[in-house]
Amino acid sequence: MDEKIFDRTEKKYVISRAEYNYLVKIIKTHMEKDEYFKSSIYNIYFDNDDYDLIVQSIDHPLFKQKLRARSYKGYDKVFFEIKTKLNHRYLDDSDENKGYKRRVLVTKKDYRDYVNNKADFITIATRKTEQKTDYQIAKEIDYMIKYFDLKPKILVMYDRESYKGEDNLRVTFDTRLKYRTTNLKFSKNPADKPYFDDKKCIIMEIKAKGYIPLWLVHALSEKQIYSQRFSKIGNIYKKIRKEQNVIQ
Predict the structure, then answer these.
(1) Which of 22, 92, 93, 147 has the highest count of CB atoms within 10 angstroms of its CB?
(2) Strands (E), the chain
(3) Which domains does the chain have, with CATH numbers?
(4) Do the beta carbons of residue 196 and residue 234 sit within 8 Å?
(5) What pTM did the predictor assign?
(6) Does residue 5 register a pLDDT over 80?
(7) What does the pLDDT read at residue 3?
(8) How distant, in Å, are the alpha carbons of 150, 151, 171, 245 from that of 154?
(9) Could you say which DSSP state residue 211 is in?
């Protein structure tokens, strides 16, 4: 969990439990469980009061970026991440999204100090920095927060299973997708709302440095499982707006 900068091609799929069972059997013959095979993930997305970053993301622009704080159940640290995506559809007619993440690691106490205005971000993010990249990423995040007037707005949580393979191939399955807009702490809460009406819906992500291997392409084709655009925060935001009966 100590990577600071990385890029990859990402494809997303919303699948059924039956499709999950079929794919996992094949995946287990080609891949192994990740070091953090099972985890509960909490993402707090930052935005301004007009939700400019999320709204821009929904419009599928050439370039988009998000800022989030991510933590894992039982883990006393928080990843502050700038997540950007470049839509290749505008460049070469492909349907691939190239994703980049830049992040710094802080303690949960430092995170609380920041959101409670007890410390500025550039200070807490570089207290224990050992690499120049840490300081540079911290400056980018600090600038982004100030420029867009960002603050914690939506918490998104889910349980994940992770598999890793050759050439940095990674396949993840996310279940029990939930969200809330109040009491934004890295923990469960009675206010949590499920996103899917069908609890059996699973979000699968394939992340690769290059091409998806043929064995996996064939497995997906066999069951006619196709990739689709699915932004967790984007779809949750639209559901929240619908619940509030706000017409965009």
Answers:
(1) 22
(2) 5-15, 32-47, 63-72, 77-87, 97-107, 151-164, 170-180, 193-194, 202-208
(3) 5-243 (3.20.100.30)
(4) no
(5) 0.87
(6) no
(7) 54
(8) 12, 10, 25, 18
(9) P
